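Today's session is about reading a structure prediction critically. Students often jump straight to the picture, but the first step is always the sequence itself: look for stretches that repeat, for charged clusters, for runs of hydrophobic residues. Only then move on to the predicted structure, which in these notes is written as discrete structure tokens rather than atom positions. Here is the chain we will use throughout the hour.
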Amino acid sequence: MRKTEYILIPALLLTMLFLSCKQARHTEVTFKEDPERTKIDVFIGEHYFTSLIYTDSLEKPFLFPILTASGKKVTRGYPIDPRPHERIDHPHQMGLWLNFGDVNGLDFWNNSSAISPERKSHYGHIQLDSIIDLDPDAGELITLSTWKDYQKNRLLEERTTYRFSGDTEQNRFIERTSHLTALQQVTLRSNKEGLFAIRVDRAFEEPDEKPVKRLDAGALPADVPYAHNEGVNGQYRNQQGYKTESEVWGIKTPWVALRAEKEGEVITLVILDHPQNPGYPGWPHARGYGLFSMNNLAGNTMNPADPPIEIVLNPGEEISFRHLLIIGGEITDEMINGIMKQFHNQ
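Below is the predicted structure for this chain, in token form.
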């Protein structure tokens, strides 16, 4: 295993961690395969971090749950592991994932168990075909998946590289690179439903007095909708300094942060876009109810002033997306911009 050693300067800690594991204090990434439960567990040092879940019944592979270094969950539990007072909307929004709402007219984003059989023909699903490599030294998990229509016709092949890293104190990183190769002619058109996304824990939601369908105190569906803002204190911000969902949503930016206090701990989530991605900088699909996403293919569906997007891939042609999720404590704009600079230069 590679050994690393952090330079303990608060304003540079995250940047130095991201820059190189070669100079950092010992940080081991280990993987534990569990094929019977169709998952791979990821550990940073001795601490459980997340799992890649790839059961076909959930329509796509995704990471769930995702924990901070102290063990607090930053992902919503519903519908897999429901917790009290959670919203029970959008059952397709689970953990951390990547897919899109218009691939040859098919909706890969919204597919879930909530879609009735007679409507399934309008949706696509992503099936994990194989685990190509598990490299603990690099913290890399590489998979091969296929984007398929309802009749299991193959549209896209996806080679995905997850790169996990972190320290023993507070910080975690998930970098995802997705290489998509067309297996037939594929058209991607502007759609707000995408792309690199996480559904977050209640603490990261914005307070809302509107009654909605929720689980009750026993984590069972409540009889009537209700509002519940206890512990809810999420606040978005982007590089331009906007600080609410309504200001951040749909405004092109290279990064968006979401900060909350949970159980006495300040936690900040940051999604960074990469300049090699189509549509850079992307359009954040960031909602106060808990969806947090960077969408590189939104175009005029999120901002009518922006031009529409239409990308046609002939068989064998490729398109790639690369994003970084940071899970840390109190992270300043200066720190984010420093990490962004290094991320963009790689």
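Discussion point for the tutorial: The domain at 25-331+340-344 is CATH 2.70.98 (Beta-galactosidase; Chain A, domain 5).
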